[in-house]
């Protein structure tokens, strides 16, 4: 096979940069990484043959500065630029600048990106190409009163969308006319902050919707093929969480209609490279040929492309590179087929129990399961910084049928171990194991309606607690005197905090290498022949003296010692509180804290205001996402410690209420 280019530059970071580098090297292509300040030692820098520092940590000063990236390509002699996803991948001005510099952009033409870049114009274009679109208003008028009338005409519920939107940002569902004005304002603000464009469109909200998208691919010889569909209906905040291919319940007839519409859409704009046509489908009953509508086209490689790779055996990045070099599509439509079923789960540093609040921190420990393809851009010791998307990895499984692939996903997630930051790992596992997900009949509302169950912490069992207690108390297992007391065995009372609730147990040390963990209402667990080697424990347990192993990490935190433990495929985090700092666990109901470092965009209250429980006090923006801060109870505002527009640190006190009067 020919080598399409001799050297390419990857204008991205994280897992996708690593992903592109891997395929490039397999094709014998040399790679150039670019990086910001905080990414100087990132994995993508390490994997690439060369690396160029392009600026400070904020993306706006590094990964989004096209000029510096083009300069880096020139300086290193790269012939082409792969943009990954996000950042400059859908920026037509960048594409033109790349081409003007005599370089190749590995992606579609600037004209195709422009045609699909704004959701309103794209919908008009698709309508003309005979592709069904969601009913709505996508015109130029933006007066709030006019848009409210349009919403009423379309019929509630409606969805307000920033026309420049992406990644689920700038979108608000409105159920009733009374909520329209405020939702509009908020969507416009988010659109402005994230994309520099407050312009919105209004859409009918499809009830029981399923998100089904089609992977398309075009070459510069006028050919377009599709690589089947992906179902991305498992979403939170309109962002994908678990994706799969093929879509459950898809009939040959509906597949033919959908993929046909997708290919028509791509052909209508003379599309080249990898692209995705996203449809919203009526999921209230079986899929129908007249029950899906175009939502938008993403003119880039999608985050969830690996599930398509798994079922087709195609390396989509290789295709991107070959097509950009002018080669024809490697396979014709009739040479493509679906093999088995695949899932992808997006592992994020975020706290599902706190409204999926993005988290930051150093990944003190990170290991993946051998059952899965794990696409990541970080390794143990790396930090999840507040500057970029907090994705840690994508966990991808593939098997002959849906249930086998789903069970592999559950196991792979259980065997994934992350220490150092909050993650959605347990949430993902619960989701992958959820009966409604297992039977394949769900819509985009599943996470919302089952949220309470999905974030409910499963309580760690006695085996977990036993290892956690030894690690948290830092018991010296070799101490001959450890278990020997004049009055008998040594007993340690241990109170852990688990998911914000105390969890009490006691550990009895019988002899140097033997302990029993007791917990009210549970069978005690005894461990013998305990040995500890750094972060690993080995022991025997039960009458059969069967072997057990555990990986344990302990981190010292302000609030105490945080123990993360993985045994028998299940991991848990437990905090051994530092009781000298007792206030840390008192419910701080009198103070509203900044949940993260960011900017206060709206401040709703002033000193002396009476507030209701649940009333919004302020809106913070971090990572281009808005979070409303609400009052924990009814009361009077005693102090306000911030101003609108102010940057605040995570954990800072923003608003304090007057103490509650004794009843
Ligand atoms: P879609 O545009 O349909 O949401 P993807 O899920 O592939 O498709 O992601 C869209 C874009 O949004 C990507 O470029 C990705 O970098 C970005 N993105 C996805 N999730 C997040 C997130 N949690 N925070 C910030 N950006 C995100
Ligand atoms: P983004 O560019 O942020 O990906 P999309 O237009 O693709 O924006 O919409 C994101 C998600 O919002 C979809 O995957 C879908 O779950 C939901 N959504 C979008 N439009 C509608 C609609 N008209 N009715 C119901 N849900 C919708
Ligand atoms: Mg989308």
From TrEMBL:
Coiled coil: none annotated. Its cofactor is biotin. It holds the Pfam family Biotin_carb_N. Residues 4-452 form the Biotin carboxylation domain. PROSITE patterns: ATP_GRASP, BC, BIOTIN, BIOTINYL_LIPOYL, CPSASE_2. Keywords: ATP-binding, Biotin, Ligase, Nucleotide-binding. Gene3D superfamilies: 2.40.50.100, ATP-grasp fold, B domain. InterPro entries: ATP-grasp, BC-like_N, Biotin_BS, Biotin_carboxylase_complex, Biotin_carboxylation_dom, Biotin_COase_C, Biotin_lipoyl, CPAse_ATP-bd. Residues 583-658 form the Lipoyl-binding domain. It comes from the Bacteria. Residues 123-325 form the ATP-grasp domain. This is Biotin carboxylase N-terminal domain-containing protein. It comes from Tropicimonas omnivorans.
């Amino acid at each position: 096979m020919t080598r399409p280019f001799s050297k390419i530059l990857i204008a991205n970071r994280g897992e996708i940069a690593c992903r592109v580098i891997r395929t490039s090297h397999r094709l014998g292509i040399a790679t150039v990484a670019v990086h910001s300040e905080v990414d100087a030692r990132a994995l993508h820098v390490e994997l690439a043959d060369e690396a160029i520092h392009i600026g400070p940590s904020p993306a706006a000063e590094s990964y989004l500065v096209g000029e510096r990236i083009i300069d880096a390509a020139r300086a290193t002699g790269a012939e082409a630029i792969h943009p990954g996803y996000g950042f400059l991948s859908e920026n037509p001005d960048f594409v033109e600048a790349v081409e003007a510099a005599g370089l190749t952009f590995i992606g579609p033409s600037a004209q195709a990106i422009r045609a699909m870049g704004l959701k309103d114009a794209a919908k008009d274009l698709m309508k003309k190409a005979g592709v069904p679109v969601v009913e709505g208003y996508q015109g130029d008028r933006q007066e709030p009163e006019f848009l409210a009338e349009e919403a009423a005409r379309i019929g509630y519920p409606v969805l307000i969308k920033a026309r420049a939107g992406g990644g689920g940002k700038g979108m608000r569902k409105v159920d009733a006319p009374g909520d329209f004005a405020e939702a509009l304002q908020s969507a416009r603000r988010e659109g402005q902050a994230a994309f520099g464009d407050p312009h919105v469109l209004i859409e009918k909200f499809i009830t029981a919707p399923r998100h089904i998208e089609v992977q398309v691919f075009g070459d510069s010889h006028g050919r377009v093929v599709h690589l089947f569909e992906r179902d991305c209906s498992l979403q939170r905040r309109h962002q994908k969480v678990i994706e799969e291919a093929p879509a459950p319940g898809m009939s040959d007839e509906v597949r033919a209609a959908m993929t046909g519409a997708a290919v028509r859409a791509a052909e209508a704009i003379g599309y080249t490279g990898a692209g995705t046509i996203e449809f919203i489908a009526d999921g209230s009953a079986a899929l129908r040929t007249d029950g899906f509508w175009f939502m938008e086209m993403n003119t880039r490689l999608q985050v969830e492309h690996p599930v398509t790779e798994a079922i087709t055996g195609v390396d989509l990045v290789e295709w991107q590179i070959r097509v950009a070099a002018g080669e024809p599509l490697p396979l014709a439509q009739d040479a493509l087929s679906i093999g088995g079923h695949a899932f992808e789960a997006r592992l994020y540093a975020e706290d599902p129990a706190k409204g999926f609040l993005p988290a930051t921190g150093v990944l003190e420990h990170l290991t993946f399961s051998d059952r899965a393809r794990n696409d990541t851009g970080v390794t143990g010791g790396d930090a999840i910084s507040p500057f970029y998307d907090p994705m840690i990895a994508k966990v991808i499984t593939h098997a002959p049928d849906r249930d086998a692939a789903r069970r592999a996903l559950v196991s792979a997630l259980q065997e994934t171990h992350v220490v150092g930051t909050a993650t959605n790992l347990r949430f993902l596992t619960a989701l992958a194991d959820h009966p409604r997900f297992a039977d394949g009949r769900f819509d985009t509302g599943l996470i919302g309606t089952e949220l309470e169950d999905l974030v409910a912490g499963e309580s760690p069992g006695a085996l977990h607690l036993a290892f956690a207690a030894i690690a948290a108390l830092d018991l010296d297992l070799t101490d001959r005197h450890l278990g020997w007391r004049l009055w008998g065995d040594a007993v340690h009372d241990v109170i852990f905090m688990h998911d914000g609730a105390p969890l009490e147990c006691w550990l009895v040390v019988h002899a140097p290498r033997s302990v029993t963990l007791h917990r009210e209402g549970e069978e005690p667990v005894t461990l013998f022949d305990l040995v500890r080697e750094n972060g690993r424990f080995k022991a025997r347990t039960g009458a059969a003296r069967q072997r057990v192993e555990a990986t344990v990490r302990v981190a010292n935190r302000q609030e105490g010692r945080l123990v993360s433990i993985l045994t028998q495929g299940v991991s848990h985090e437990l905090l051994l509180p530092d009781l000298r700092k007792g206030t840390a666990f008192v419910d701080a109901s009198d103070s509203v804290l900044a949940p993260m470092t960011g900017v206060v965009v709206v401040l709703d209250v002033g000193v002396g205001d009476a507030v209701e429980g649940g009333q919004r006090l302020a809106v913070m923006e971090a990572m281009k996402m808005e979070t409303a801060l609400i009052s924990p109870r009814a009361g009077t505002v005693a102090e306000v410690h911030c101003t609108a527009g102010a940057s605040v640190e995570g954990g800072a006190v923003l608003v304090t209420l007057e103490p509650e009067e004794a009843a």
